[in-house]
Design brief:
two-stranded parallel sheet, 33 strands, about 10% helix
Length: about 675
């Protein structure tokens, strides 16, 4: 095993040595990859990438921007944003973007990431909301996407029991409209593989109309929207990020009220909401009424009840179709926020009511899960910037249930060193259906933890990051029949000697506890240790050709069982437009893991506004090709061909997703028309 890894490493490094003289501006792909690796496989980043793409077309004027606008750049920390405004206040307007080097916390890497999205150009005026201008000057984007797996899945066979009732095709239609930063509209239609098509062309429909900066109305949205306030404990929907190599990511940047543009079928509100301001005060009232999926049954009094909500949005099998839209959810509430200089404080209050009651589940670890038909949530959040310190936190209470709070600080200790400290305490009986606070659990409940992180940038060449997170779970969890604890550490060194070469070395270790796999009369907890080692090179031979090489090794050990190993090696190539029309990228990868426990995740490129998270488990090869073809100034086309070829297997996948053979091949097409 060691000999194989050493051989691959030597060959791989020798192939990676190249000299380059130029460097392209930071692009959306690099930014997304840096934050995407800790997200779930089916996470939809459409909302984020649309924002970044729009800022590339319409850069932010740093001399006229606002805190809310800069928060939408996910790679900027709240402390960096605060330092920028302090710099503008003390020194006046920027004459060149490169002057950001004088702002605390703005490294060369951060400035390079910023360049495609910002400007210091002439003053901009608000566009007028007039019928003719809205029609003539608005930007329209229409997307059509088709995808399918070429092999036949077991669920599409004529099975006597559970099976997929629809077609294996995946369809998506998306329309986006923007008129300056004053008016926006969106429409998303989506059909997943296995869902019916002919009886109802699309299974999921989402849309909204949003107005901005109209008198005292800062934002007004009709249709689907998201709410992101505080640190995610009380009221947060849509995309959310947690721990990452950039240690400042533990401080969430609340974006408030926003139109919803993703295809995720659960994480949004449906109704109307507005943010109204007067001087330093903002009020955001909202109402939402929508249908959710739930598996229901009758209680002793013949009332329909449920224990959980199905969040997948999939309606393929008879059971999934039966559960579709079976539960009504009504949410009414408001957010109050006071902003004064560097200080902000806000309060949240809302009430959630369901058409049927929730009952407790039979498992002991679910003893404190939510029961009843309604829930009232209250929250209080704050943030404060003082010189080189940014303080933040939130306290939340579910009425008649538990309490949760978190608090942290970002500190700029010098021009080369910054750190983060974050403490959290989430009760086991705290309930919120819109809870996405930073935590080790998938939901911020039943957890105490302390996170500390450090960023060190001694010069333009080296960037060192480190964090340690200690956590404990006072109550039981799934497959954990006793209170447990653990910790996670990550260390990363980034070496960038020039604009055309970057090397990354990373180590990550995580220790948790879980029920033993041994046959014993009474379960006890075994220690689980996961470790990952990564070496990566990014380089280019000229302005057009970019390369990325990665070798990653994983280890998994539980209790006294033998240690499992896995490794992944891949080569990515981004190639320039060919014949003035074609451009794209390609990956060749080899992976070998002892089992699913030692699996490795890797971000994968996809068509525009679509992202994939490859799960490399077992032994085999992975390859994909993405092509973009520019038909004319308004029409673009993309195609993606991706394949897993496994070794020593008879089938791929499990249950209804099982495929006979050793290959799984996916094909995807997309068209974009801009007018």
């Amino acid at each position: 095993m060691r000999f194989k890894i050493l051989t691959i490493l030597c060959l791989w490094i020798s192939a990676s040595i190249a000299y380059a003289q130029n460097h392209e501006e930071a692009d959306i792909r690099d930014i997304v990859e840096s934050i995407a690796e800790n997200l779930s496989e089916d996470y939809d980043l459409t909302e984020l990438t649309e924002v970044l793409d729009r800022f590339k077309k319409h850069p932010i004027n740093l001399n006229q921007t606002t805190e809310d606008e800069l928060k939408r750049l996910v790679f900027l920390s709240p402390l960096q944003i605060s330092n920028l405004f302090n710099h503008l206040k003390e020194n006046g307007k920027l004459l060149d973007v490169l002057e950001l080097q004088a702002v605390d916390g703005f490294t060369v890497e951060i400035i390079e990431q910023l360049l495609p999205f910002v400007t210091v150009g002439q003053n901009l005026t608000l566009a007028e909301l007039k019928d003719k201008k809205i029609y003539k000057n608005g930007e329209n984007n229409l997307f059509l996407r088709y995808a399918r797996t070429l092999q036949k899945l077991k669920g599409f066979e004529d099975l006597p029991g559970n099976k997929y009732l629809g077609t294996p095709d995946r369809f998506q239609l998306r329309y986006r409209y923007h008129y300056d930063d004053r008016l926006a509209a969106s429409l998303t239609l989506d059909k997943d593989a296995g869902e019916k098509f002919f009886s109802k062309p699309f299974d999921f429909y989402s849309g909204s109309i949003a107005l901005f900066k109209v008198g005292r109305i800062k934002k007004l949205i009709l249709g689907d929207y998201t709410m992101q306030f505080g640190q995610g404990l009380t009221l947060w929907s849509g995309f959310s990020f947690g721990k990452a190599p950039d240690v400042t990511s533990v401080a969430k940047k609340d974006l408030g009220l926003r139109p919803y543009t993703s295809s995720n079928e659960y994480a949004f509100f449906r109704g109307t909401a507005a943010t109204i301001f007067y001087k330093n005060i903002e009020i955001t009232p909202f109402v939402s009424l929508r249908k959710l999926d739930a598996s229901q049954s009758f209680d002793a009094d013949s009332n329909l009840v449920q224990s959980t909500i199905n969040q997948t949005g999939l309606h393929r099998t008879p059971t999934e179709i039966k559960n579709k839209n079976s539960l009504s959810q009504l949410v009414l509430g408001s957010v109050f926020q006071y902003n004064k200089g560097e200080f902000s404080i806000g309060g949240i209050a809302y009430h959630t009511n369901f058409s049927n009651s929730f009952i407790s589940q039979s498992s002991v670890y679910d003893h404190f899960s939510f029961t009843g038909q309604s829930l009232t949530n209250l929250g209080l959040f704050y943030n404060y910037s003082f010189q080189n310190i940014y303080l933040f936190g939130e306290g939340a209470k579910s009425i008649r249930n538990g309490f949760a709070f978190n608090s942290g600080a970002l500190l700029s200790l010098s021009r080369t060193i910054s750190c983060a400290v974050f403490y959290r305490n989430y009760n086991k009986d705290y309930h919120s259906f819109f809870n996405q606070a930073t935590s080790e659990n998938t939901e911020a409940i039943n957890e105490d933890g302390l996170y500390t992180g450090l960023n060190v940038v001694p010069n333009k060449v080296w960037h060192i990051s480190f964090y340690a997170d200690y956590f404990k779970f006072p109550w039981l969890k799934y497959r954990v029949d006793a209170p447990s604890k653990g910790y996670e550490i990550l260390g990363q060194i980034k070496y960038t000697p020039g604009k055309a070469f970057k090397a990354i070395l990373r180590y990550k270790s995580e220790i948790k506890q879980q029920n033993t796999d041994l046959e014993v009369p009474l379960n006890f907890l075994d220690q689980i240790r996961k470790e990952n080692y990564r070496l990566e090179f990014n380089w280019q031979i000229n302005k057009q050709w970019k390369f990325q090489n990665r070798l990653e090794v994983s280890q998994f050990k539980k209790g006294i069982q033998p240690r499992e190993f896995g490794y992944l090696a891949y080569q990515d190539i981004n190639f320039p437009p060919l014949f003035s029309k074609f451009s794209g990228n390609i990956r060749f990868a080899y992976f070998s893991t002892a089992g699913y426990n030692s699996r490795i995740y890797a971000y994968e490129d996809d068509v525009l506004y679509s992202f994939a998270f490859g799960v490399y488990s077992g032994k085999g090869f992975r390859s994909y090709l993405n092509l973009k073809y520019k038909l004319n100034d308004r029409l673009d086309a993309w195609v993606r061909y991706a394949m897993f070829r496994y070794r020593d297997v008879q089938t791929v996948g499990t249950y209804l997703d099982e495929i006979e053979g050793s290959k799984k091949t996916d094909l995807k097409f997309q068209l974009r028309y801009q007018f």
